[in-house]
Design brief:
By secondary structure, the chain is α/β, with parallel strands linked by helices. The chain contains 19 helices and 23 strands. Helix 1 packs across helix 12, helix 5 packs across helix 18 and helix 13 packs across helix 14. The radius of gyration is 24 Å and the shape is globular.
Length: 595
């Protein structure tokens, strides 16, 4: 009887796949302790979106969370995090000094394993990051990313492609301790899983540890794992209820049951696991579980949307009042995959696909080339598995004003630590390695989310069924127990102050209450500046009375992790600012005027 190793992903991938990574540490620490007491020896504890989400949505430091996770788990449990090659856990590609700092900081804060993947399967993006992980004394699990292509597409994401990528890893001399075949969308045909891992086992020999990762989003996760195990996989990722199935990993007890009567076992104590499940359910009893996270979504077979991104996107669409567009966006995503060079639909490429599909739906097909998708097809993140559609490349070149790039992405990046240190010194903040990484990793074109956090702007946006003052979303009067798809807005005046109130049409529940800014006196010939798409005001760069030139960025709108500048249509002085930071605006809504 072969004992199959497993990692419990509930408290990292589960959080991302159900709550868009928004979960507070105080709420789940008892579940860590319960899992350890139930005999679970390997847990996923951070990384991926669970790094930036802590700072951006939970008002917490991810490093503090990892410290508490380690304390709760005890000293012997294997704690693993997820890294995205040269992006590591950042919002964009990182320079070499930051990649090295990432590995050292995660080691310092209690992690023992890092799973390292590149969405393009460009092995160049894995070499230096893998070396840093090994040099830090961590277990390096290098990954090959998998998915199913949209109908009619071919040329990658088949068994020969994955084995070719594996050979490139072996030929590169990249140091690793184990190898993972990672299907973030859960769409790979089970037979392809079997044939791929069977061929990998023959190539690697019997001693190399092979791991399999998938999601139940398409309803075939347990079958994929059975195929992987029969082909020679040594370990799999599973999760505990209520963070299993649906967009999450296959359920631990379900897979254990499916292996009965075979030559394989998870070797778990079912009663202890069920008790740990009850603790986890109690920890999360106040959280809002999106219905789309708890069902089979067969459409992802045609448009491979990862479980970890699906609910992150629908959560953001709830925030911006655009959830009703989700079916159109997921349909449009298929074309983005087909024409974008077949990068695997996993972070950050899955977000590139979804952002471009969102732009195609809201602004017209290819009228707006999003920054991430455009740079991907132009080669700034590495080589895509096949060349992107030449027409799409031309559109990207024209709209982004960038040529096709054929070099190694990491070689183009300037050192990040000196820049981050200078920012901290300028702001009078402690210059620690943790703070350097936070500021360096959370920089965006529209601002610095890490700097905002360190300066005390610790906004919390965690959806719960029952309101708690410390966890209510900053722009919400009351968290919701059901998805918000239709709403009505009113302007209410209280004690002479106007407020914009959004109310859910079906239930009458108040969704948001936003103060209406008091505008400066407007000139009769003031030029109106309006939003082109729906989004959240993330940054305001100008003040009333300030002189601006045509094309200057006035405001940044954020939607689907995509920052869109609102620019001045003419030269002049800002006559009024009609919105506030954190406010949701609609297309064609007035946001400013220029006189």
């Amino acid at each position: 009887m072969k004992k199959i190793q497993f990692m419990d992903t509930s408290l990292r991938d589960g959080f991302q796949s159900v709550f868009g990574a928004r979960a507070l540490t105080d709420d789940f620490i008892p579940a860590v302790q319960a899992g350890a007491q139930a005999g679970i020896e390997h847990m996923e504890a951070g990384g991926g979106a669970r790094f930036q989400a802590l700072f951006m949505y939970c008002g917490e430091s991810a490093f503090d969370m990892m410290d508490r996770f380690r304390e709760a788990a005890g000293p012997e449990i294997k704690l693993q995090t997820l890294a995205r090659g040269i992006n590591v856990v950042a919002l964009s590609a990182q320079p070499r000094d930051m990649i090295d700092l990432h590995a050292r900081m995660f080691k310092k804060h209690g992690m023992t394993h890092i799973r390292n993947f590149d969405a393009l399967n460009d092995v160049r993006n894995l070499i230096y990051s893998g070396e840093c992980i090994k040099n830090a004394g961590l277990h390096h699990q290098v990954s090959i990313t998998m998915m199913e292509l949209p109908p009619g597409c071919s040329g990658a994401h088949d068994v020969p492609f994955y084995i070719k990528t594996l050979r490139e890893i072996l030929d590169s001399g990249l140091p690793y301790d184990s190898i993972c075949f990672k299907d973030a969308s859960g769409t790979s045909n089970p037979r392809k899983f079997y044939d791929t891992i069977k061929a990998a086992r023959e190539l690697l020999g019997k001693d190399t540890i092979i791991w399999a990762h998938t999601h139940e989003t398409a309803g075939v996760g347990v079958v994929q794992y059975q195929a992987a195990i029969e082909a020679g996989a040594d370990g799999v990722d599973v999760a505990r209820t209520p963070l299993s199935g649906g967009t999450c990993q296959p359920d631990m007890l379900s897979l254990s049951h499916a292996l009965k009567g075979t030559d394989y076992t998870l070797d778990i104590d079912v009663k202890k696991i069920m008790e740990a499940n009850r603790v986890l359910e109690e920890c999360l009893q106040d959280y809002f579980f999106p219905p789309e996270a708890q069902k089979v979504s067969s459409e992802v077979i045609l448009s491979p949307m990862p479980g970890g991104a699906l609910t992150a996107n629908t959560m953001m669409m709830r925030d911006t009042g655009t959830l009703h567009l989700y079916p159109k966006v997921i349909e449009a995503m298929s074309e983005c995959v087909a024409r974008g060079g077949f990068g695997t639909s996993v972070t950050p490429v899955s977000q590139f696909y979804f952002q471009q599909a969102y732009a195609n739906v809201t602004q017209g097909p290819w009228k707006k080339m999003t920054d991430g998708y455009g740079k991907m097809v132009l080669g700034y993140f590495g080589r895509t598995p096949v060349p992107p559609d030449p027409e799409i490349v031309k559109i990207a070149e024209a709209q982004l004003g960038k040529p096709v790039f054929k070099g190694d992405p990491v070689d183009e990046l300037e050192p990040g630590i000196p820049k981050a240190r200078a920012i901290l010194e300028k702001e009078g903040l402690p210059v620690t390695e943790e703070n350097i990484f936070i500021v360096g990793a959370l920089q965006t074109p529209g601002g610095n989310k890490g700097l905002d956090f360190l300066k005390g702007h610790k906004s919390i946006n965690v959806r719960k069924v029952s309101a708690k003052s410390e966890t209510a979303a900053p722009a919400a009067a009351a968290p919701q127990a059901a998805p918000i798809e239709q709403s009505t807005e009113y302007t209410v005046t209280v004690d002479g102050k106007a407020y914009q109130v959004k109310v859910e049409a079906a239930s009458g529940a108040v969704q948001t209450v936003t103060p209406v800014p008091t505008s400066a006196a407007k000139s009769a010939n003031a030029v109106a500046v309006k939003a082109k798409l729906q989004g959240i005001v993330s940054e305001i760069f100008v003040a009333v009375g300030e002189r601006v030139r045509r094309g200057d960025t006035l405001i940044i709108l954020e939607a689907m992790k995509m920052e869109t500048p609102v620019v001045a249509p003419c030269d002049g002085a800002v006559a009024s600012i009609e919105v506030e930071k954190g406010q949701v605006v609609k297309p064609e809504q007035l946001v400013a005027t220029i006189a």
